[in-house]
Specification:
With 322 residues, the chain is α/β, with parallel strands linked by helices. Helix content is 43%, strand content 15%. The chain contains 13 helices and 10 strands. It is globular, with a radius of gyration of 18 Å.
Length: 322
């Protein structure tokens, strides 16, 4: 039990989540690229959640959370606030369960993600791009609709669902020295850290974050919560603050958090597009960007990187100047 009074998901809970979402989400592939591995002097294995349902790992947690609810709980629908990927994932999961989804999205959300939420049947309410505005708008919506809130990351059902990506990764690869994941609210990172701890305990977990949104880095270093305040990074999925559930797990089970610059995110994103011929969004490229900057000692090691998603607005690519 952590300082919040909640017990982190155990190995059985994570395996139950994997069984619950099986057939409702993809078991995504693990790919390698000789050029990138050679460039970094390490064996790099990419867990491709950009190929996941809704184009991101968020499908795992949202599906686990929704299908953990009773029929009575689902009757009035589910609700959340999200900049995009969780919004899409919850709208899709709700649709699969025959429930309504009410989504609060900041006004600067990616156009392609807003459209996707609506295509999955989600009802979108916009708010100002601050955490305070997201939470207050959601509180009003929740009171009006009676919907069950499914937080994008500060929810044990979400954390257990996100942990299944790492469960798959360590289950189908030879032992990894390091697993890297990007960090925003910490749902993916805390789930990854738990799965590594339970199922591959010799593996170190390192998170990566943009310098322009380095609240998790500072929180980790100071061992106390530092909020994200209107960060300016192209990695829109990493603009949120850590949660009361995710932060203690990260402090206990993550080895390090490193940062990278915006130009390095562009370089890493382009490298994946050009060398691997797959689409990833800026948030996905952050761990590779940190490695390109030499932020972690990986020489000669086997490194797994979770590519978190691939939802990109092709009319607003970061390397094309308007």
């Amino acid at each position: 039990m952590n300082e919040t009074g909640h017990t982190a998901p155990g190995p059985g809970t994570i395996r139950e989540a994997a069984a619950r979402i099986a057939g409702r989400v993809h078991h995504t592939p693990v790919l390698t690229n000789a050029a990138i591995s050679r460039m970094l002097g390490a064996e790099i294995l990419f867990k491709c959640e950009n190929f996941q349902k809704v184009g991101a790992f968020k499908a795992r947690g949202a599906t686990n959370a929704v299908f953990s609810l009773s029929a009575g709980e689902l009757r009035k629908g589910v609700c959340t606030h999200s900049s995009g990927n969780h919004a899409q994932a919850l709208a899709r999961a709700a649709a699969l369960a025959g429930a309504k989804a009410f989504i609060v999205m900041p006004s600067n959300s990616s156009r392609i993600k807003v459209e996707a939420v609506r295509e999955y049947g989600g009802a979108v309410t916009f708010c100002e791009p601050t955490l305070e505005a997201r939470e207050s708008t959601l509180a009003e919506l929740r009171e009006r609709t009676g919907a069950v809130e499914i937080h994008p990351y500060n929810d044990l059902r979400i954390i257990a669902g996100q942990a299944t990506a790492c469960l798959e990764l360590v289950g189908e690869t030879a032992p990894l020295d390091i697993i890297m994941a990007p960090v925003g609210g910490g749902g993916l990172l805390s789930g990854t850290a738990l799965s590594a701890h339970y199922f591959s305990p010799a593996t170190r977990v390192i998170a990566a974050e943009p310098e322009m949104a380095d609240d998790a880095y500072r929180s980790f270093r100071q061992k106390e919560f530092v909020p994200s305040v209107n960060p300016h990074t192209m990695a829109d999925g990493l603009r949120t603050s850590l949660g009361t559930l995710t932060f203690p797990i990260i402090l206990q089970h993550v080895s390090d958090i490193v940062t990278c610059s915006e130009p390095s995110i562009i370089r890493a994103m382009r490298l994946i597009w050009e060398r691997m011929k797959i689409l990833v969004e800026p948030s996905s490229a952050v761990p590779l960007a940190a490695l390109l900057e030499g932020k972690a000692d990986i020489a000669g090691k086997r490194v797994g990187i979770i590519l978190s998603g691939g939802n990109v607005d092709l009319d607003a690519l970061p390397w094309i100047k308007p």
